[in-house]
Amino acid sequence: MQRDELARYLDQLLDVSRVRDYCPNGLQVEGRAEIRKLVSGVTASLAFIEAARAAGADALLVHHGYFWRGEDPRLTGTRKRRIAALLEADLNLYAYHLPLDLHPELGNNAQLARRLGLVEEGRTGEQNLVCYGSVAQPAALAEFGRSVAAALGREPLVIGDPSRPVRRAAWCTGGAQGFFEQSFDLGVDVYITGEISEQHFHLARESGIAFVAAGHHATERYGVQALGAHLAERFGLAHEYIDIDNPV
Fold it and tell me: 22 lies in a domain?
């Protein structure tokens, strides 16, 4: 498949033009023109680039790419080493941040819901990033936390009464603790995201809504995998997901 053809398809599939974001979405670093093997991962770290290169990738597909708003734009130090590694290997880098969170089928929120047994009923908040709905198998908070750990392979931080029944949930993958208060009027029992900040412990206790911080990386592993698998099936590309473990 041709590099630019893949970029156009992804931009359209993920409806990039309608999303306001903190980084450029799409083809961030241009590599070779023809793509046979695609390697997906969460973050375009140097370790991921090196692993993808060793795996024979022509293109990298990630959720966390480069050129974030407010960052120093100079290519020095770590940034220089990452870009140099891509250019030396002639690798393409495709990165999709909020558009990948938002996609109703392949997105991070949709894929997390599938793994945790959450049934989406609607979306709200900034750009409809927060999902809400029912829990397919209601359980006490302690049991629900154990099911999250089993599904994601990582112990979550669970704030709330362990005996509280969990029947309804709101969720947003990654670093979405700032959206917690937007769940207060949704009639949910628990809010699920990747990270938690100090003040949200108190907000959880005072609001009565449990908070589950299941890991930024852990909650965002599934969108790129689903998207990579979709591209492999549609265009006959070889696809491999490489996980660079991150405890955050």
Answer: yes
pTM more than 0.90: yes
Q: pLDDT tens digits for 81-129?
A: 999 999 999 999 999 999 999 999 999 999 999 999 999 999 999 999 9
pLDDT tens, residue by residue, 146-183: 999 999 999 999 999 999 999 999 999 999 999 999 99
Phi, psi of 160 (to 5 degrees): 145, 175
CB atoms within 10 A of CB 172: 29
Structural domain harbouring 87: 3-97
The span from the CA of 223 to the CA of 202, in Å, is 31
Long-range contacts of 117-122 (CB under 8 A, 24+ apart): 117/147, 118/169, 118/171, 118/192
Phi first, then psi, for residue 67 (nearest 5°) are 65, 50
| 112 and 214 both lie in a single domain | yes
CA 75/CA 90 separation, integer angstroms: 18
Which token pair is 105? Answer: 């089928």
Looking at the structure, do residues 88 and 185 belong to the same domain, yes or no?
no
> Contact 62/224 with Cβ under 8 angstroms?
yes
How many Å apart are CA 244 and CA 133, to the nearest integer? 31
CA 146 to CA 81: how far, in whole Å? 40
* φ, ψ for residue 59, nearest 5 deg: -145, 150
Q: Is 89 exposed, middle or buried (0-12, 13-18, 19+ CB in 10 A)?
A: middle
